[in-house]
Amino acid sequence: MSEKSTYTRVNASTRDESRTNDGRGGDSAGQRWVRPGEEEEETETESENEELRCPECGGNVVADDEHGETVCDDCGLVITEDSVDRGPEWRAFDSKEKDQKSRVGAPTTNTMHDKGLSTNIDWRDRDAYGNSLSSNQRQKMQRLRKWNERFRTRDSKERNLKQALGEIDRMASALGLPENVRETASVIYRRALDEDLLPGRSIEGVATSCVYAAARMAGVPRSLDEIAEVSRVPKSEVARTYRYIARELSLEVKPADPEQYVPRFASELGLSDEAKMRARQLLKNAKEKGVHSGKSPVGLAAAAVYAAALLTNEKTTQAAVSEVADISEVTIRNRYHELLEAEESIGIA
After folding, report:
1. Which helix (H) or strand (E) segment is 80 a member of?
2. What is the pLDDT of residues 34-88, one digit of tens each?
3. Which of 25, 111, 207, 297 could form a cystine bridge with 258, CB 3.0-4.6 A?
4. Backbone phi, psi, residue 328, to 5°
5. For 188-230, how does the pLDDT look when each residue is reduced to its tens digit (9 = 90+)?
6. 282, 305 in Cβ contact below 8 A?
7. Is the pTM of this model over 0.85?
8. What gap in Å lies between CA 254 and CA 213, rounded to an integer?
9. How far apart are CA 275 and CA 273, in angstroms?
10. pLDDT score recorded for residue 2
11. What is the secondary structure of 210-258 as a DSSP string?
C-alpha cells in the first residue's frame, strides 16, 4: 500500500471525504491530503472560526489590538476587552530599527555606571546547582572577579561614575525614595559629568545635590537637613553645589510645595486621612492669604499637620511633630498661629 493510502482527502469547502487505495492521481481543486487525526483538529479550528460571529447581529468580529478589545465590525458591539498584548512594548518600522530595539535580559538602567550591560561574578562561590566550589575553583573565580572589576571601570571617568551612583543609591535607600528618583538623580549626575562640572567639587557633594534636585522634581521632596543627615558632606556644601548644578544644567525645579510634605509627616505620626485633608486645607488658605511667602515649606507643613491633628481631635504633641519634621518647636508654634489666623480671616470674609 502506498504512503498516500494512510491519508484522507478532504474537500476544503464541503468537507466531503473519499478514500483511495493507490498512490496515483493528483489532488482535485479545493482538496488536500490530511492525516486522520489532523482532520478532527481542522474541523475544530473551522468550528471555532465560525463561532467568531457577533452574538447580536451575526456580523464579522475583528480584534482591536490598540485598545485590547474584540468588537463587531458591523454594529460595534464590544465582545471581549482587556486582552493581553504579548508582543514587545516597542515599535519598529524597519529591520534595522527592529535589530536595535530587540533585546534579551534585564532592561538597561542609568543607576549603574555601565547601564547594567556587563557581567557580574557572584561572590558566594557556588555553582549552578548550589554546590560549593573546590579550593582551586575558588581561587580561579577570585582572579576572574578581580579582573572583571578592573575591566568594568577602565578609566577615571567610569570609576568616578561608579562611586557617585553608589552614593546616590545609598542615600536614596536611606531616605526611602522611589526608583524613579534614583533614575533621575543618576541622569542629572551623568549630565554634570559630561559637561565637566565636577572639577573642584567632591563626588559626594555633587551626588547629594543630584538626589536633592531629583526628589524635588519628582514631587517627593526632602529637606536639606534630612539630606545632610544621610550625606557625607555638610549642609552648606550641599546647598552651594545644588545651586551651581541647577544653574549650569538649567534644571526646572519648582519651589517646594508644603502640601507635598503632609502625607509623609501624617503617616509617620499615624494620623487619619481626615487630618491629612484638613492640613491641606489649612495650607491652601495660607496660600490665599500669602502667609507662605518667605517661610520654610517644612515648617508650614509641620504646623499644618499639628493644627489639623488638634482640629480633628487626634492626639499628638509638638515634640512628636518636631521630631518627625526635624524642625524646632518654636517654629511650629509660630507657623501654627499664622495658619489659624489665616483660617479665621477667610472664615470672616
Report:
1. strand 78-80
2. 455 544 444 444 444 445 788 888 888 888 777 778 888 888 888 888 777 667 7
3. 297
4. -75, 155
5. 999 999 999 999 899 999 999 999 999 999 989 998 989 999 9
6. no
7. no
8. 10
9. 5
10. 44
11. HHHHHHHHTT----HHHHHHHSSS-HHHHHHHHHHHHHHHT---PPPPG
Q: Looking up cell 451575526, which residue turns up?
A: 58
How far from the centroid of its chain's Cα atoms is residue 27's Cα?
A: 58
- Among 308, 300, 303, smallest CA distance to 278 is for 308
Phi then psi for 279, rounded to 5 degrees?
-65, -40
* Side chain identity at residue 120, one-letter code: N
Q: Is the separation of the CB atoms in 179 and 109 below 8 Å?
A: no
Residue type for 121, please? Answer: I
Task: Kindly state the greatest CA–CA separation across the chain.
Answer: 105
Which contacts of 151-159 are long-range, i.e. CB under 8 A and separated by 24 or more positions? 152/113, 152/114, 152/118, 153/113, 157/193, 158/113, 158/114
Amino acid letter, residue 167: E
pLDDT at 26: 43
- On whether the CB atoms of residues 210 and 178 are closer than 8 A, the answer is no
Alpha carbon distance 205, 228 (integer Å): 10
